[in-house]
UniProtKB/TrEMBL annotation:
GO biological process: phosphatidylinositol phosphate biosynthetic process; protein localization to plasma membrane
Originating species: Leptidea sinapis
PANTHER family tied to this protein: TETRATRICOPEPTIDE REPEAT DOMAIN 7, ISOFORM A, TETRATRICOPEPTIDE REPEAT PROTEIN, TPR
Superkingdom classification of source: Eukaryota
Residue ranges, annotated region (Disordered): 265-291
Keywords carried by this UniProt record: Membrane, Transmembrane, Transmembrane helix
The keyword Transmembrane helix appears for this protein: yes
Protein name: Tetratricopeptide repeat protein 7 N-terminal domain-containing protein
Role, per record: Involved in endocytosis.
Membrane-crossing residue ranges in chain numbering: 314-337
Any one GO cellular component localisation term in the record: plasma membrane
Residue ranges of every copy of the Tetratricopeptide repeat protein 7 N-terminal domain listed in the record: 1-300
Membership in a protein family: Belongs to the YPP1 family.
Entry annotated with the keyword Membrane: yes
């Protein structure tokens, strides 16, 4: 009987471990409850597994972000109770107390109790853990613990009486935590299956260490850290992360490093053959320790693998860098010229890729790119149609010949309709389609496209401007109130920008009395609303602050589109020309 009981317990433990590695938390909790009922001597282990399963199941649904703190405080009390039970003396004897403290630190972080989280990591003696081979699940727990510790140190306030030495020591501990978390995350993703994701906490930790170095003025350390992570052996799970890190490294090198201070990466030393025997097998990658990810043994090997696997992504980064130069330096003299120069260099390196030129040249290159994508059935087909449509749209606005204008407008409309058909999750395509309809006097169609644009991206600046213009035109009638609502929504999304204020003031001055008939006294539509908005605009203009629009034009390498994997929903759109119609 005793032998059968032990075999049954081993069977439960094997199934539970498999469920943990597969993140099947519902099954893990069910098995832990059965283990607790069948084997009372494993009660501490069962308490730990139940608490872990309930915590991870909740965090899979609600990531540990500030918006979910209140919900976490309400729904994680049961998981907290089970994990606390696993930290007693019986839990220490069962070997689960340390892991329970680590998970309690994660739980308190999700609940917003950052000081309590740090206390649990202190109880677990996180700083003194021995570097040794860990099971896959334990590897993730330790990686998340270091990441959360760094985030908690960032979030907790530092007393004003803290000495300069203590501040430096705290910053060093924070960076060390993020760097350890980064190494463990990369190692975990290398060992895990292809469908495993790092999660928000670990992805944040990967990017925080270089940013802290940059904030402290240690640019060389930040570059070294980026290179350290990019030389890790690539796996399916790290491709998106590598793209983000490569883009950030490119931005740092472009903006902060000149030819005099630039240092090439150092050569990676190959592993030394032990025992004096000759080996014909060449090690493709090495690991510097049990908590270090495997790395390529030579720079050329890393470069070859990175270049041939991510070539197209790199040129997406280059294209994004060009747009970033234009957007970030739109007020600086010669910024557009520099952006075109960068694009010309990129086109020479990859002649069959998309390039950006002036209007006539851009149409020519966009059409060439369109033909390439049609021929290869590429994933940038919708974007090629979009850029062709934008080119003809700009050409139609520029030309004075009626025949050429009509032809360009018709071509632009057909290209934009095709872009929307291929990718109905791209707010830029809908925005430019709405703009084209408005240019051609098709106001109902323009309103439909504007609604589609705002459904995809509610805070799209161009879409909100078009909504204001279309709802406040002479044919809008009583719907002018919607134009005011759209202007107020734009003001909410872009508090530091000027255009929502002057749009709102213009609409208030036109639709004030019309709307006021339907509003009670003392409503926001008072007789002084336009004047108050105008004063607010003048105050903003005289404050000398930088235009707030730039912060909303950041490029994101990843796309939310479900049809076209490169429809960039966060890309900055061209500044729209909004025409206001009045009675």
């Amino acid at each position: 009987m005793t032998s059968r009981s032990k075999n049954a317990v081993r069977s439960y433990e094997t199934e539970i471990e498999k469920s943990r590695e597969e993140s099947n938390w519902k099954k893990a909790v069910e098995l832990a409850l059965q283990l607790k009922a069948r084997s009372p001597q494993h009660e501490s282990l069962a308490h730990f597994l139940i608490g872990e399963g309930k915590l991870e199941a909740f965090l899979d649904e609600c990531p540990p972000i500030k918006d979910n703190i209140e919900r976490a405080q309400r729904e994680l009390s049961e998981a907290k109770g089970f994990l606390n039970l696993a930290t007693d003396e019986a839990g220490k004897r069962a070997g689960v107390a340390l892991d329970a403290h680590l998970l309690l630190g994660k739980l308190h972080f999700a609940c917003g109790s950052y000081d309590d989280s740090l206390k649990h990591y202190k109880h677990a003696e996180l700083n003194t853990l021995t570097e040794k081979e860990l099971p896959l699940r334990s590897l993730r727990i330790v990686a998340e613990s270091y990441a959360i510790k760094g985030l908690c140190l960032e979030q907790t306030a530092v007393p004003s009486s803290t000495s300069r030495f203590k501040m430096v020591e705290r910053e060093a501990e924070m960076i060390h935590s993020f760097e350890l978390a980064s190494d463990l995350t990369l190692l975990y993703l290398q060992r895990a299956t292809s469908n495993v994701r790092a999660g928000a906490t670990l992805e944040t930790a990967l990017q925080r260490a270089p940013l802290l170095h940059i904030r402290a003025g240690r640019l060389a350390s930040a570059i070294d850290r980026y290179r350290e992570m990019l030389t890790a052996v690539e796996s399916t799970s790290t491709q998106a992360l590598r793209l983000t890190l490569a883009r950030q490294l490119a931005e740092v090198l472009m903006r902060g490093v000149t030819g005099q201070v630039y240092k090439a990466p150092t050569k990676v030393s190959p592993p030394v053959q032990s025992g004096g025997t000759l080996s014909r097998r060449r090690e493709e990658n090495v690991s510097e320790g049990p908590w270090k990810p495997r790395k390529y043994t030579a720079l050329n090997q890393s470069a070859v693998k990175f270049t041939f696997k991510v070539t197209r992504k790199i040129y997406v980064i280059v294209f994004g860098a060009v747009i970033a130069v234009v957007v970030a330096g739109s007020s600086a003299c010669g910024a557009g010229v520099r952006a075109v120069c960068v694009a010309r260099r990129a086109a020479a390196l990859e002649p069959r890729d998309v390039a950006l030129r002036l209007i006539e040249e851009s149409i020519e290159f966009a059409e060439e790119a369109l033909e390439i994508e049609k021929e290869n059935e590429g994933f940038l087909l919708a974007r090629c149609y979009l850029h062709c449509g934008i080119g003809y749209q700009m050409k139609a606005q520029k030309t004075n010949c009626r025949k050429e204008k009509e032809s360009a407008n018709a071509t632009a409309l057909s290209h934009l309709l095709e872009a929307v058909r291929l990718d109905d999750n791209d707010h830029l395509a809908f925005y430019h389609l709405a703009l084209q309809h408005m240019y051609m006097g098709m106001l109902n169609e323009a309103m439909d496209a504007t609604r589609a644009c705002l459904r995809v991206r509610a805070e799209c600046g161009g879409g909100l401007r078009l909504a204001c213009a279309l709802w406040s035109c002479a044919a809008a009638g009583a719907r002018g109130a919607r134009g005011l609502d759209a202007a107020r929504l734009a003001r909410h999304h872009y508090p530091g920008a000027e255009w929502p204020l002057w749009t709102l003031a213009a609409l208030q001055s036109v639709w004030e009395s019309e709307v006021g008939r339907h509003c009670p006294p003392g409503d926001a539509y008072s007789s002084y609303a336009a004047l108050a908005t105008g004063k607010e605009l003048l105050k903003l203009l005289n404050s000398g602050e930088e235009d707030g629009e730039q912060q909303y034009c950041e490029l994101d390498a990843l796309s939310d589109s479900v049809h076209d994997t490169h429809s960039n929903r966060d890309a900055g759109e061209l500044p729209p020309k909004v025409v206001y119609y009045s009675n």
